[in-house]
Amino acid sequence: MIDAEYSGFQENLKKLGEVADEDTFSWRGYLEALRLRREYFKLNGATATDHGHLTAQTADLSELDAEKLFRRVSTNRMGPGDVEMFQAQMLTEMAGMSADDGLVMQLHPGSIRNYNTPIYEKFGRDKGADIPSPTEYVRALRPLLNKYGNEPNFNLILFTLDESTYSRELAPLAGHFPSVKLGPSWWFHDSPEGMMRFRECATETAGFYNTVGFNDDTRAFLSIPARHDVARRVDSAFLARLVAEHRIDGDEALELIKDLTVNLVRKAYKL
């Protein structure tokens, strides 16, 4: 409901208004409707939200500027850059709602969706051909983190398809902000080599306890046990190397592997 690039966005605004009984073509009504739907899902067992954007860009507009931007977006009269700015502002709005209602916020940026235009035109959206793109986090997330990054009730889990950001951007952000945790390698990188590169690059700065262990949201259900098994084996191999190098002892490794397997993810998602 915050993807203004979607061709059915205005129709979805109308449906949201009907379900929430709010004027979703006004800025305040739109935000209130989103709050109400979040509360509905929370009452039905949800503990987290998930946001898939092309970039990690966030914004912190004044209420007046945000209202003007929403008016253009909701009436399909967007100017250059309006869609990107709206999505950036909405990530910050979603963070504020998470700080209020306690739902964990997940951010999955960096995928150019429907890259193969002939496939998209023949079969429609979300039929594959999603290609990773370089993603910048430090400057992009600064408006959101300056506003909510130190809030005790805010929890943000960051994912990436851009391995070059592990040690340069993501690990320092997770190491500094109490609200930020790093999600595991995913999609193109939830493989033995990809998982090991993540541990090697992120652990020295972020440590283990600023990550969330391993979780999985794949729709390929039959692959879930295998992916979790691979993650456990990779983490065990990484910890075994640390023990062999006398950087941790065996008892610490046994405690860590339990946390990386199940305890950290349960804590991160409030399960």
Structure description:
The structure is a single chain. By secondary structure, the chain is an alpha/beta fold. 54% of the residues lie in helices and 7% in strands. The chain is built from ten helices and six strands. The protein has helices at residues 9-20, 27-43, 63-74, 82-101, 117-123, 138-148, 166-176, 192-206, 224-244, 250-268, and strands at residues 48-51, 104-107, 111-112, 131-132, 156-158, 180-182. The strands form two sheets. A four-stranded parallel β-sheet has the order 1-2-5-6. The chain starts with 8 loop residues before the first helix and ends with a helix. The model has no long low-confidence stretch (mean pLDDT 95).
Mean pLDDT: 95
* C-alpha termini separation: 26 Å
Order of helices and strands: HHEHHEEHEHEHEHHH
Regions with pLDDT < 50 over 5+ consecutive residues?
none
Number of strands: 6
Radius of gyration: 20 Å
**Classification by helices and strands:** alpha/beta
Share of helix, binned: 40-55%
Largest sheet: 4 strands, parallel
Determine the strand fraction and express it as a percent band.
Answer: 5-15%
Shape: globular
The side-by-side strand order for the widest beta sheet comes to 1-2-5-6
Give me a quick take on this structure.
The protein is an alpha/beta fold and 271 residues long.
